[in-house]
UniProtKB/TrEMBL annotation:
Alphabetical list of InterPro entries matching this protein: SCO6880-like
Annotated organism of origin: Thermobifida halotolerans
Listed name of the protein: Uncharacterized protein
Keywords: Plasmid
Source species, domain of life: Bacteria
Length: 476
């Protein structure tokens, strides 16, 4: 059986010329038009005085840095510098504040509150309530079966099933978005025997137990622990619920409506409040995962899950003595790829690493309008190129073809999904962080992804990458 290929992703593009977006095109037109109008109204001498400024504006309009418009980058730097001068990039926890503590998590996590609930028949479950945006998020703890040892027919079925899961989100108007997170944490060899012992059937044949013992004994001194989870965020303003209890019920209903087994994952459990607090705490302090006992995690409160001290820098984030960098996706692979395209980013690493993919499935009406707008923008670019006598570039032709294909597929009943990706790596020092940075960027290159550091927004991107708090970048 041949291996199917996947692709057709494209960035949302506004109407622009020569590969520029709408804002860049407008700025470039102003840089050209203002001196010309000034020459007509005030004379050539006055227009010559404007030429240096117009040249700077035109250069700024067409300049990008790793896929980011230079003007956006300059504005981000000015906002970050202003925030630093106001002391807003540093965080110190209120260790001696009286209970109940409020707004005790840093940055965009501050409005969140953890609800510890009892779901009849299913035990304890934790829900993160973002009181600022009105989102409630519940999490599944997953155990991916993996595709390395599966036959191609099984892999194809699992990929189609995952597509159906995403498509089903469009039918639930209350669902805002979903986040899939995979964490890779270096672990000591003692974790593997404990993991195997906890899953060994006492009635298993002696030969099977002997083989597993030999495998554990032959394992390297350090291993990588992989943990996966899926978080579903529900917009409570779009539900009929009139109070918090009703909103929680709608959130758990939406989470229970997902069927993931066909997509190649086993649901271990619904994340409890203790699980969610542990996820956040170990994200800020990876060393705590090695020393804390289950009893201590049960005592952890949500306000205490954050860092004791944190400092945001332009290109990295310092939290409780650890150093992290978070990247975001700039461009998905242009070519068609196989199902395992992200495998280089999910291979064992000497440093803690976290990959979070955010999905937002558009409603049928919104998908149609978005694709129509994109199709019109691609057509307008073709008309402009024809009237100016320019030959369309290969990229423009490929982008227009993908826009036409997406519109045709949507007209036949296909859904439209927006997605983004965040990658976080953590190290114990700046020197190790530089090595971890090279490791991630090399893996992203092998996965054919264009990524960039979240300059000036490392703290917010770190919180988004945790995946459990229902944060969605356009809403921040």
């Amino acid at each position: 059986m041949s291996t199917p290929l996947y692709g057709g992703w494209r960035r949302v593009r506004s109407l622009g010329i020569a590969g520029l977006d709408g804002r860049q095109t407008l700025l470039l037109v102003l840089a050209v038009a203002v001196p010309l109008i000034a020459a007509l109204l005030r004379g050539l001498t006055f227009a010559l005085w404007l030429l240096p400024a117009a040249a700077v504006v035109a250069a700024a309009a067409v300049t990008t840095v790793r896929g980011v418009w230079a003007v956006d980058l300059a504005l981000a730097w000015m906002r970050f510098t202003a925030a630093r001068l106001r002391g807003q990039t540093a965080y110190r926890a209120q260790l001696w504040a009286p209970y109940p503590r409020k707004w005790d998590l840093p940055g965009v996590l501050a409005p969140t509150r953890l609800l510890d609930l009892h779901d009849p028949g299913r035990g304890r479950v934790g829900v993160v309530w973002n009181q600022r945006g009105g989102l409630m998020s519940a999490t599944y703890l997953l155990s991916p079966t993996g595709a390395l040892l599966a036959d191609q027919a099984t892999v194809n079925y699992q990929v189609r099933a995952w597509g159906q899961v995403l498509a089903s989100l469009a039918d639930d108007t209350a669902v805002s978005h979903a986040a899939v997170t995979v964490e890779l944490t270096p672990a000591l060899s003692s974790h593997l025997p404990q993991h195997v012992a906890g899953r060994t059937d006492p009635a298993a044949p002696g030969l099977a137990r002997q083989i597993m013992d030999e495998v554990v004994a032959a394992a390297p001194a350090t291993t990588t622990r992989i943990r996966a989870r899926l978080t579903l965020s529900v917009d409570t303003t779009k539900t009929p619920a009139r109070d918090v209890d009703g909103a929680v019920a709608e959130t758990l209903r939406s989470l229970g409506g997902l069927s993931l087994s066909a997509a190649g994952v086993d649901v271990l459990a619904r994340a409890s409040a203790d699980d969610l607090a542990q996820i956040v705490r170990t994200g800020f302090d990876p060393a705590s995962d090695q020393v804390a006992s289950p009893e201590r995690w049960a005592e952890l409160q949500w306000p205490d899950a954050g860092p004791v001290a944190a400092q945001e820098e332009w290109g990295y984030y310092v939290h409780d003595g650890a150093y992290s960098i978070t990247w975001c996706l700039v461009e998905a692979p242009r070519q068609y790829v196989t199902h395992d395209v992200l495998l280089p980013l999910l291979l064992p690493s000497p440093y803690p690493q976290r990959l979070t993919v955010l999905y937002r499935t558009l409603s049928r009406e919104e998908a149609g309008s978005v694709l129509k707008r994109e199709q019109d923008a691609a057509s307008a670019r073709r008309v402009y190129q024809y009237k100016t006598g320019r030959d369309p570039s290969a990229r423009d032709e490929a982008d227009a073809a993908r826009a036409e294909q997406a519109a045709a597929e949507e007209a036949q009943g296909a859904g439209l999904c927006e997605f983004s990706l965040f990658i976080t790596t953590t190290a114990g020092s700046l020197e190790e962080l530089e090595e971890a940075r090279r490791h991630v960027e090399q893996a992203a290159s092998q996965s054919r992804l264009r990524i960039r550091p979240c300059w000036g927004g490392q703290a917010a991107a770190f919180a988004v990458g945790l995946g459990v708090a229902g944060l969605y970048p356009p809403d921040l």
